[in-house]
Amino acid sequence: MTTQAFANSKPAISLVVMTDLDGTLLDHYNYSTRAARPALKQLKALGVPVLFNTSKTCEEVAGLRHDLDNLDPFVCENGSVIHIPKTDGEGYNSEILGTSYVDILKVLSQLRKEGRKFRGFNDMPASEVAALTGLSQESAWMSKQRVASEPLIWNDTELALTAFRSQLEQAGLQLTQGGRFYHVMGRADKATGLAFARDFYQHLWEQPVKIAALGDGENDRAMLEAADFPIVIPGEKQILELSNPAAVTAPSKGPAGWNHCMLELLEQLQQGA
Questions:
Q1: Which one of 21, 145, 158, 218 is most buried, counting C-beta atoms within 10 A?
Q2: Which one is catalytic: 20, 27, 189, 216?
Q3: What is the pTM of this model?
Q4: Does residue 20 have an active-site annotation?
């Protein structure tokens, strides 16, 4: 994958920001980033890249990147797919790190025949996805354009869920829980995306980099545990507790908490520079 498009992008501080979207940079209810705009503006002024690491699809992320004038690489579907913008600005160089969508659906089809009760995005029309997520019909359609993961709603007991998880693992897949859905995917996670970001920018800038990671859900745990500056955004259902001693918890949910902690971190790093 080429890195030429980023050759002149070494920032004032050797920092990369990697962030979850739903419930973190995006408000859980209205998907707004407004409260985080001051920190995003300062990050851009410093030349610090902000990489989205999300359960969303490439099609969903493209619109947000345009709205925020974000030109950095990004990671989709919970670490399963990496996208690096091409040097000509047309499309991306992409790599699937997990398991293909077709193979995931084959496994899920077999497990459904064996009595497992769930409803995935592949089973739903865009109108149903829109109703469940609060997205527009168009955005819901984009969220159905999966490459390497399947969000689903579980419709059975916790005991059956444990058995389902075990069956997926035997098939080389895994089940992770996000803010709204369970996600079936291959042997990749958001920490895979963070490892990519660290290697990519250390090679690009020819110096060590620190990574600040922000997330609110269980599917963000691996990414946060692997970060130099893990920032936990309070979730709708719980607040993650990490073993990473550097972890801090934002004082508020969503983009407001994102903004507060990021501005605070930038001030600390600039004072120590």
A1: 21
A2: 20
A3: 0.87
A4: yes
